[in-house]
What does this fold into?
Amino acid sequence: MVLRKLLRIESLLPLIFGISLVGEGINLILHRVELGIPKEKVGPDVYLIVIGSLIVCFGLAEYLTGFRSEEKDRSGEKPKRLFWIFSLVVLYVAVLPFLGFTFSTALFLLCFALLIPKYSWLKAIAMATIVTLSYYIIFWQVSRIVLPRGVVGF
Amino acid sequence: MNQVGSTSILSYAFQLFQPLHLFYCFLGSLLGTVVGVLPGLGSSATLAMLLPLTAYVPPTDMLIMMAAIYYGANYGGTITSVLMNVPGEPSTAVTCVDGFKMTKQGRAAEALAIAAIGSFLAGTLSIIPLQIFAPPLAKFALLFGPPEYTGLLFMSLFAFASFSSESALRGLLIGLVGMGLATIGVDPISGIYRFGIGPLVGGLNVVPVMIGLFGVGEVLYSAAGGMEKIYEGKLGRFFSSRSEFLKGIKASMRGGVVGFILGLLPGMIPTVTSFLAYDLEKRISKHPERFGTGIIEGVAAPEAANNATAMAGFIPLLSLGIPTSPTLAILLASFMIYGLQPGPLLFNNHPEVAWPVIFSMYIANVMLLILNLPIVGIWAKITSIPYGILAPIILSICVVGAYSTSNMMWDVWVCLSFGLIGYGMRKRGLPPAPLILGLILGPMFEGSMRQALGISGGSFWIFFSRPVSLAFILSGVLLFIIPILARLRGPKSA
It folds into this structure.
C-alpha cells in the first residue's frame, strides 16, 4: 500500500520540477540584478522560467485529467518483488566503491539468484561465478573499461 | 573529384584490396560491433583510446579502421536495444521502442535482421552521394544559420512530442521536462550555473538517464510483473512474411534518406536523426497507432537513419574539415596527427588517403553485414534465458554503462533514479522517448535560439523573416495541431 501511494505521488513530479525551474530562474534574475550583469532578451534565467511555466501549465492539466486515469491494469504485479529487486540494486551500487566492481557484482548476482527466482545455492553460485568471470575478462582484460576498484583493487 | 581522373580514382579503389587495408577494415568492423554491444563503451571513447596507435599504423589503414569503428558501433548497439531494451549506443535508443516489443513477441531475429539489412542498405547507398556530391552538399549545409537551426529543432520537438503519445499535450509535457532537465549545469553561453548544487554542477549526462529510463525501468517493470522469460515459445524466423520484409526495406530506404540529408547538418548526430526518422515513419504510416507495439518499420527506419547519418557526416568532414559529431571530431584529430588537413585540398593533395577511406566504407558495410546477419539467431536465443538470470545481468551491465560515462558513481545513482522514473512511466503508459529527445535537443535549441537572438539584437522577428526558419516553425505548429484536431473530430475509437 505504502509503495502504491508513493508511486501516485510521482504524478506530481512534473509540477514540482516545473516550479523548481521557475524558482531557479527567478533566483538567477535576482543574482544578476545584484551583480549588475546586463540583461539578455532570453538569457539563461528567462529560458528557465518559460520552460518551467509551460511544464507547470501542462503538468497541472495532465494531473487533473490524465495521469491518474492512465494506470495500466497489472493484476499480476508483485510490489514486494519490485521492492526487493530495487533494494538489492541500491545496496549493490552503495557497496560498489568499497568492494570494487568484481566482488560487489558477484555478491549482487548471488543474492539476486537466491532471493528473487529463489535458485538453489549451487545454481546461484555457478551463475554468479560464470557471469563475474566473463565480466572480468570482458571489462578488465579485453576492453579495459575504468570501473570502481574498491579496497581489493578490481 | 574533379582534380583526380576517374582512372586514378579506380586505381585507389583497387589498392584497397591489399591484405593490410582489408585487415584493418575488418578489425574496425569487428571492434565497432563489439563497442556497440557493450553499453559502457562508446565509439568516441574507443577512437580516443586508439589515437596513440597513430604512431605505429600507417595513416590510410588507421583512418579506414577508425571510420569502420564509428559506423560499426551503430550495428552493434542495436543488439542490446532489441534484446534487452538497453541502448548499446545512444543512436539506437529509439530502436528499443519497437525492437524490444518485437523480441517479446518472439520476433527478435526479425528485428535484428532488418536492422542489419537496413543499416547495410542505407550505409552503402549513402556512400555514392558521398563520393559524388561531397563539396556542393556540404556548402548547402553551411547556409543554415542559428535561426534555421532553431526552426528545425522547434519542428523536431513539436512533431515528435505530438506523435509519441496518445495525447499530444502529454508528449509535449514529457519533452519539456527533458528540456528542463537539460538546463541543469553550466549555461554554455554565459557560463552561469543553473541548479549549481553539488554534483548537479556538471549537468545530467544523457547516457545514464537513457540507460536508466530504458534498461533499469524495463527490468523493474518486467520483474515486478512476474516475467519468467523475455519470450516463451519458439523463436521466430528472420522474416515472418515477404510483405513484412518489403515493409522493412521500404522503411529503411526512407529512414536512410532522412538520415543522410539531416546528417549533413552540423550537430545532427545519429541519435537525433534516428528519432526523426522514427517520427516520420509514424507520421506517414496508415496505422500510426501500431508504432510502439512491435512494428518492423519502427526498427528499420531509425536503424537505417543512424547509419546514413554516420556516412553523411563524412561529407562535411572530408570536404570542409567540419566534424558534425564528437566522434568525427576525434577522427578529424587523427587526420591532423598525420599532418593531413581535411578540406577542399584533401582530395587534391592526399588522394591516396581520401579515396581508399571512402571506398573502404563499401567493404566495411559488407563485412558488418556478414558479421551481424549470420549470428542473429545466436543473439536471439538470449531471449529464452530465464529472466531470473537475465535481469541481474542486464542491471549490472546498466551499472557499467552508467559508470563508464564519466567514471563517477553519481552517474550510477542518476541511472537508478531514472530507472524508477522509467518504471513509473511504463506503469502509466507514458512514453520515455520524448524525454530523451528533449534532453538531447534542449541544449541545441536553447543555444541556437539565443545565438539567433544575439544576431538580431534580441528581436524574435529573425525567426519569421527568414523563409527556411519560418517554414520549419509553421510546419512544427501544424504537425502539432493536426493530430489534436484529428482526434477531436474523429471517432473516439480511431
Q: What stands out?
A: Chain B touches chain A through 61 residues (CB under 8 Å). Residues 147 and 463 of chain B are 6 Å apart (CA to CA). Chain B has a mean pLDDT of 81.
